[in-house]
Amino acid sequence: RAMELPPSHFPAGRAAAVALGYLRYLRGGPGRGLQLRQLRRARRQDIEDAGHKYSLELELEDVLDKDRTVTCTAEVLYPLGSKSSAPEVQVTVQGELRSTQEADQDFYNRIRSLEKELVAENIPDSHGNVPPHLEPIHLLAWAASGYVIWQNSTENTEFHLAQVKHVKQVKRSDEDLQFDYVVLLHEMVSQEVIPWEVTVLWHPRRGARVSRDRRQPGH
């Protein structure tokens, strides 16, 4: 039994945030920031013994290429009764995302050539500004926090990345770049702001991989 939901319906928006987080982790990086332009359609289905499944149609844009939008269909299944397992997400993107190959390579080379490891905090700053040289670091945090949002969302939460509180590059002996982030996630339902530690590995050919994440204690 499927039920059409108005796109403005809160549960539809919460499911869309999960799908977007998943897709940011999968397809985002220092050269691409995916954001939701419009939630076009949402359906909810109660699947016996499995959970609630949301079928969504989203219109997305890349913050670095706002003239072009892509359509994405997504299914988000919140498993029954389990607080500990992540929603199951499937996404299909229709249309071409702009290639980030060149930007990725430039960023990779720039970071590899730094004499001192990069350290930064408060991105964006209190005025909402992101310095241009930190934009890729900010977008990589979008990708990394996308993983955290996907893994930790339930039907009753809606997480958004509010700010990168702190980021520190860690030198490695292999080819990956490593960044240790502390991000602030804003949970829209409880209005809580939660600091989260996330370590992300990134390489132009392999994309972003979160190697560890931890909700900071005391929150």
Overview in brief:
This protein is α+β, with helices and mostly antiparallel strands. It is built from three helices and ten strands.
Description:
- This is LXN protein.
- Residues 1-102, 119-219 form the Cystatin LXN-type domain.
- It comes from Dasyornis broadbenti.
- Keywords: Protease inhibitor, Repeat.
- With 219 residues, the chain is α+β, with helices and mostly antiparallel strands.
- It has a single domain (2-215), classed as Roll (Nuclear Transport Factor 2, Chain: A).
- The protein is 22% helix and 46% strand.
- The strands form 2 sheets. A 5-stranded antiparallel sheet has the order 1-2-3-4-5, with helices on one face.
- Helix 1 (10-27) packs across helix 3.
- The chain is globular, with a radius of gyration of 17 Å.
Question: What topology does this entry show?
Answer:
Elements: E1 2-5, H1 10-27, E2 34-47, E3 51-62, E4 65-79, E5 88-94, H2 101-112, E6 119-123, H3 135-152, E7 159-170, E8 177-187, E9 192-203, E10 207-215
Antiparallel strand pairs: 1-2, 2-3, 3-4, 4-5, 6-7, 7-8, 8-9, 9-10
Family: Belongs to the protease inhibitor I47 (latexin) family.
Protein name: LXN protein
Keywords: Protease inhibitor, Repeat
